[in-house]
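Hey, I was hoping to borrow your eyes for a little while. I've been puzzling over a protein and I'd love to understand its fold better. The fold is given in discrete form, as structure tokens running alongside the sequence. I'd be grateful if you could look everything over and explain what you see. No rush at all, and the record is pasted right below.
>
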Amino acid sequence: QLQLVESGGGLVQSGGSLTLSCAGAGFAIDRYIIGWFRQGPGKEREGVSCVTTNGDSTKYADSVQGRFTVSRDNAKNTVYLQMHNLKPEDTAVYYCGLSTWAVQSMCVMTPVVYNSWGQGTQVSVST
């Protein structure tokens, strides 16, 4: 019942930027690590980024390192994923997730660790 809501997806050309938001619906997310994942057409869900509860530690997939930035504003109950220099291969449905049991100080990008997900937001990058 810990529902997350993603927003901010859309259409963008290669090289463009987009910022995704992940907000807790009816609960505070500051107790949980938050991960960003994506699933492209015909692909399995893969980790993109994650952030610890206080935002002091982050991780990124090699494919997005240097282009994406994850941050969180617990006062706004929201986690953000800033995406720059987007590429067609970034096209996917992006999901945010949380883990109710993971160590709060440890950032992980393994999908199985996360047990609550949002509905996803579509990011489409054209050439």
In short: The chain has a mean pLDDT of 95. DSSP finds no helices and eleven strands in the chain. The radius of gyration is 13 Å. The first strand starts at residue 3 and ends at 7.
